[in-house]
Amino acid sequence: MDDFRQLVLEAHRKGIRVVLDLNPTITSDQHTWALHWQRGIPGYEHFYASANRSKDPPEMESSEGPPPEDWELTQRTFGGHYVLNWSNSMVQQEYQKALSYWLETGVDGFYMKHLDKIHVLNLQDLPLIVRKWRTVLDTPHSSLWMHRIARNVLIVSAKFAESLAVDLSVQKELLKHVDLLDYPILVGNGKEMADQVTGLKKVSRWPKHFPMPMWHMGSSDTFRLASRIEPK
User: Fold this and answer.
1) pTM for the whole structure
2) What is the spatial distance between Cα 204 and Cα 208, in angstroms, rounded to a whole number?
3) Is 207 found in the same domain as 159?
4) Domain assignment of residue 176, yes or no
């Protein structure tokens, strides 16, 4: 962790902010929480949504969220995954501790991925969960805090924000705690690229209560953009 802290420090010296990608919807079945849950340790009985593992390995950045709950690995090199039960207050508390840990290293925020697949018993739980994340982000965590020129950022996907349209009150309450909405641009050819451009146009029609948009090009399972564009 000393190396990571030094990395963050050097990035800040160059005016670069460091934001971590996190998927809060699942953990490995070898995670400490999962082991406590499997053994029925008091307090962990309702930590996860299901005892079943998923049948396909978790996809990369382009995935639609956590894998199906009936997945089983044939060669369990790294294990399977369990879906967290975010309506459990203990899950919320433990994750807040994890966020605080990373903020103490000096990181500048988090991109919470796959939230459109987060497991809650009631949609009304979501604004409270995100508000707690916002509180952690706004709490001083290191001696460098007073020298910050901007608050820590919270990023979610545009797909997640749009999925909340089924309850506009939940959508509005939740998004007021979010700084940026991420919209992917998957660089390709022909109709695929035309579809991307069409999708971008709808950003201008987003409701006024939506946070500022941001874009990313490509994904973790494609070649880097710099290696796909010929130098002039």
Assistant:
1) 0.80
2) 10
3) yes
4) yes
